[in-house]
Amino acid sequence: MNHYVTGSTVRELREKKKLTQKQLAETLCVSDKTVSKWETGRGLPDISLLEPLASELGISVAELLSGECFINANRSANLLRSKFYVCPICGNVIWAAGEGAYSCCGVSLPPLEAEEPDKAHEIRAERVENEWYTTVDHTMSKSHFISFLAFVTDNRVQIARLYPEQSAEARFSMCGQGRLYAYCNRHGLFSLRV
Ligand SMILES: [Fe+2]
Question: Per the domain annotation, does 87 fall within a domain?
Answer without folding.
Answer: yes
